[in-house]
Amino acid sequence: MKTSSAKFKIRLGLFVVIGLALFVLAIFVIGKQKNLFDPVITLKAQFNNVSGLQVGNTVRFSGISIGTVDQINIINDSTVQVTMLVKQEVQKFIKKDSEAGIGSEGIIGDRLVSISAGSPDAPIAKNGQLLKTFEPVETDEIMQSVQITAGNAAVATQELGEILYKINNGEGTLGRLLNDEGIAENIDQTISNLKTSSRKLDENMEAAKNNFLLRGYFKKKERERKKKEEELKKAAEKKENNDKSKK
Fold first, then answer.
1. 113 near 60, Cβ under 8 Å?
2. Is residue 13 pLDDT above 90, yes or no?
3. Higher local confidence (pLDDT), 27 or 226
4. At what angle do helices 212-246 and 181-210 cross, to 10 degrees?
5. What distance lies between CA 131 and its chain's CA centroid?
6. What are the C-alpha distances in Å from 170 to residues 90, 121, 182, 184?
7. What's the CA gap between 159 and 171, in Å, rounded?
8. Please, what is the average pLDDT of the chain?
9. Pick the residue with more confidence: 93 or 222?
10. pLDDT tens column, 193-233
């Protein structure tokens, strides 16, 4: 095809227009993600460990994306400073005592910076404000804790299985108690003897009350009991009358 033909020029023009359109669209999308077209403020936070955070990751406030991570600089051997670009329109909600922490989108998602609301009466954070921080919990630490818990559960399950095995085989006191019919019969006999002894004790007490030698003693105890009941009843009536008179 000749380069001077009309069809070639039309195709070349369409190619250039489509390329420019895609270039402008890409700039718009990237610029929107990087907040290039919105007024922004700078906020800073310092961590001992950024836990895999990267430039360009999201900054969130109350679960809403409000900016991006602009820079990550090592200050010294124990401090890493994170610089964030945040939309100016949300500045009024971020306070000087707000705290920044590093989290993740889901369990294995990208890292992000999460900013808390802070106290309602605290001053608004200024441009370049250095926020307080709380250190992130490392995934390795979580997995290590889970492994320790799982190991302890496995040991407890094994020990419980051994105990149940011994019980089922009649080993130990509880095992003998559950599996030895003789011990069970002895326990039943002991309970039966206790019931019989209790019944005989009641009969003996009744007989003692009717014995002329002890009759006076039991009558005296009965009179003392009735006297005490009458005193308590009078005290209650007196208290009730006093309460009524006060009203």
1. yes
2. no
3. 226
4. 90
5. 26
6. 71, 69, 13, 13
7. 15
8. 77
9. 93
10. 777 777 767 666 665 556 555 566 667 777 788 888 888 88
Q: What is the DSSP code string of the chain?
A: --TTSHHHHHHHHHHHHHHHHHHHHHHHHHHHHTTSSS-EEEEEEEES--TT--TT-EEEETTEEEEEEEEEEEEETTEEEEEEEEEGGGGGG-BTT-EEEEEESSSSS-EEEEE----TTSPBPPTTEEEEEEPPPPHHHHHHHHHHHHHHHHHHHHHHHHHHHHHHTT-HHHHHHHH-HHHHHHHHHHHHHHHHHHHHHHHHHHHHHH-HHHHHHHHHHHHHHHHHHHHHHHHHHHHHHHHHHH-
- Tokens linked to 107: 């369990």
Calculate the CA 214 to chain-centre distance.
69
CA–CA dist 212, 217 (Å, integer): 10
Distance between CA atoms of 104 and 110, rounded to whole angstroms?
6
What pLDDT score does 46 carry? 93
Beta bridge partners of 186: none
How many Cα atoms occupy the beta-carbon half-sphere of 236 within 13 Å?
6
For the stretch 103-158, pLDDT in tens is 887 666 788 999 998 888 999 999 999 999 887 655 555 566 667 777 778 778 87
Q: Measured between alpha carbons, how far is residue 45 from residues 84, 88, 113, 223 in Å? A: 8, 17, 10, 86
Residues 6+ apart with CB under 8 A from 172: 166
pLDDT reported for residue 57: 92
Instruction: Output 72 or 139, whichever has higher pLDDT.
Output: 72
CB 230 within 8 A of CB 236: no
